[in-house]
Amino acid sequence: MLRPEAQILPLEPLHKLVVSYRRVGTNAQGEDDRSVFSRQDADLANWKRQHPDYEDQVIQERISGKENVKFGFLGQFLEDAQKGKVAPGTVLVVETWSRLSRGDMADCMQLMFDIFNARLGVSFCDWGNQILRSLDETGGTVF
């Protein structure tokens, strides 16, 4: 019996998903009239205008940027991605680096390696909304 022709899978994920990670460190930051969360909402809306083919989900938490990977939703999300529970190619979008981490350089670099090794992309709104999938990707600029 002959085998059916092999199918070539697309390079892009079939279902494009962006996970907006929103974080504040204190309750006061999240409750202010012009809260950090509101500002992050506006940045995600702008990101989605530039990338309309992505559907979005939100992770939002009030936790220190030094503890969010170890104890917060961000850490759980990365763990799920490493276990294959998050679709490869999913993009984590963050307003600015300081919303993702307040760790030292070694912790920040490890976090980026963890994101890329989990087959995720990351996009920082204040870096022009480009999607980075590796540290050496063409066009990826780190400020």
Textual characterization of the structure:
With 143 residues, the chain is an alpha/beta fold. The protein has one domain (17-127): Resolvase, N-terminal catalytic domain (Rossmann fold), CATH 3.40.50. 36% of the residues lie in helices and 17% in strands. It has a four-stranded parallel β-sheet with strand order 2-1-3-4. The longest helix has 15 residues, at 36-50. The mean pLDDT is 84.
Topology of helices and strands:
Layout: E1 17-24, H1 27-31, H2 36-50, E2 55-62, H3 68-71, H4 73-82, E3 91-94, H5 97-100, H6 105-117, E4 121-124
Parallel strand pairs: 1-2, 1-3, 3-4
* Low-pLDDT segments, ≥5 res: none
CATH homologous superfamily annotation:
Resolvase, N-terminal catalytic domain
| CATH fold-level name | Rossmann fold
Instruction: Count helical runs.
Output: 6
- Report, as a whole number of angstroms, the end-to-end distance: 57 Å
The CATH class is: Alpha Beta
Q: What percent of the residues sit in helical stretches (DSSP H or I)?
A: 25-40%
* Biggest β-sheet description: 4 strands, parallel
- CA radius of gyration is 17 Å
Structural class: alpha/beta
Strand order within the widest sheet? 2-1-3-4
Please identify, by name, the CATH architecture.
Answer: 3-Layer(aba) Sandwich
Q: Which band does the percent of strand residues land in?
A: 15-25%
List the domain count as a whole number: 1
Total beta strand runs: 4
Shape: globular
Order of helices and strands: EHHEHHEHHE
